[in-house]
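BUG: 3D viewer hangs when loading the predicted structure for this chain

Environment: internal workstation, default settings.
Expected: structure renders.
Actual: progress bar stalls at 90%.

Input used:
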Amino acid sequence: MHNVPRLVRIVLGSVTAFTCVSSGAGGGAPFTEEQLKDHVFSLARNYFADFRHPETHILYGARLADKHRWTSPADVKAGKPKPWGYGSRIADTSLHCGHMLVALLDAHEARPDPFLKDNIDKTFAALKLIGSLPETHPKPGKPALVGLVPRGPHPDDLSAYYDDSSMDQHTTYIISLARYATSSLATPEDKEWIRQALEKVGQRLEAHGWSIKRADGETQAHVGFTWKGFNSQHASILLPSVLALYRGTGNEHWLKTYEAFLTEKDGLRWQKLHPGPHVKINGHPIYANQGSFRLNALYHFETSPERKAVVRDMLRYITEIQLKRDFPGPMYRKFHSEEQWRKVRQICNWPDDELHGAEVAWSMFRPAMLGGHPLSALAHVRFPLGGFHMALMSEDPELIATHLASTWKMLNTVDLKRIPAAETSYLFTVCGLHIYAHHFRQEKK
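C-alpha cells produced before the viewer hung:
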C-alpha cells in the first residue's frame, strides 16, 4: 500500500485536523513538525509568562499575578504555614526549575533552537540563585550555610525561604546541574560554578549520612530520610544522585562512593534496581514520575551498556506499574473524605470506586470537569499526566509511541487557565519538550 498520510482530529478549543507524518520510528505522529514546535513553544511561553519571575527566572507554584494571596515573606521566615513550606507556593522551586532545565536540554540536544537556548540560560540562572541563598542570605542571627538546597525564595524577598528542604528538591538540583554541566552549552565558568556548588551539596549530604538536616545540622527535614536503605526506592534516589555528583564535579571521590554503594552487601542495592515483585513506586498516585526522572538521569550518566540496559528495563517496569495503577488507590484515598470521593465519582460518572489506569482516566476527561469538583482535574488530568510523563522518560520508543496520541491530545485539549496550581502547567511544558526531543531524536536514526 502507498504510504498516504492520514488525518487525525485533535481537540484544540475547537476540533482541528492535523496531518500525521512519519515519526522516524516507523509510526505516525499526531502532528507535523511545524505544529509540534509551535504548540510546544506556545505551552512554554504561556507557562513562563504566568509562573516565572521576570527578574530571577525562578519558577513558582502558582501564578505570580496572585502572589498577594501567597504566604507572606514574614510568615515564610517564621516557618509558616509549615516549616517545610507546604501551601506557601514557593516550596518546589528547585523541583520545577530542575525538571524544566532537563527537559529544555533534552529538546535542545535533539533539535537546537534559540528559544530553547534562551530558556536554558534563564532556568540555569534560577537554579544558581536558589542554591546560593543560604550562603548569600543567611537566616537572621545565623551563619551562612553551605550545601543546603532551600525551598523558595519568596518572589518579594530573597531572604524569605524555608531551610526544611527535601529529597526531591536536592536530587533534582543535583541532577539538573550535572546534566547542564555535561551538555554542549555549559561554559568553563558554568562548569566551575557547578563543580563548587555540587561539592558543597554532596559533602553536606554525606556528612549527614545521606539524609537532609535543617540549618541547625541536627533536625531532620520533613522529607529528609536517609537514602541508604536497601530497597528499590532508596536505590533509585541514592545511585543517580551520587553518580550525578561525579558527572557534575569530576571528583573521583564520588565515583568511588557510587561504586561502593553499588557493590555493598554483595551488590544488594544494585539488585534492587532490577525489575521484580520487590519494586515499589511512590505510594502517592501523582508523584511517581519523580522516580522516573531520577532513573532516567542514571541511564544518561551511566557508561556501562550492561547497567544502562538494567536501568532501561527498570524505567519501563515502573512506568507500566504507574500506567496501570488505580486512582485514588489506598494511600491517596485517606487524604479526602468518603463523601468527597462519592461526589467526584458521581460527577465524573466513574463505573466503580476506582479509575483503572492512566488511559482510562484520561479517556473520561471532559472540559466541563475543570469547573466542577476540585478532585475532577486531579483524577482525569494530573493523575494520567504523571504516567504519560513517565512514558516519555522511559527510553522505550515502543512505550512512548503507545501513549503519544493520548499525551498529545491532552496537551492540546486542557485549558490550563482553569487550573490554578503550577504542577499541571509545568508538566505540560515538560512533556511537550520531551515529545519534541523524542521526535527529533527518532528522525536522526
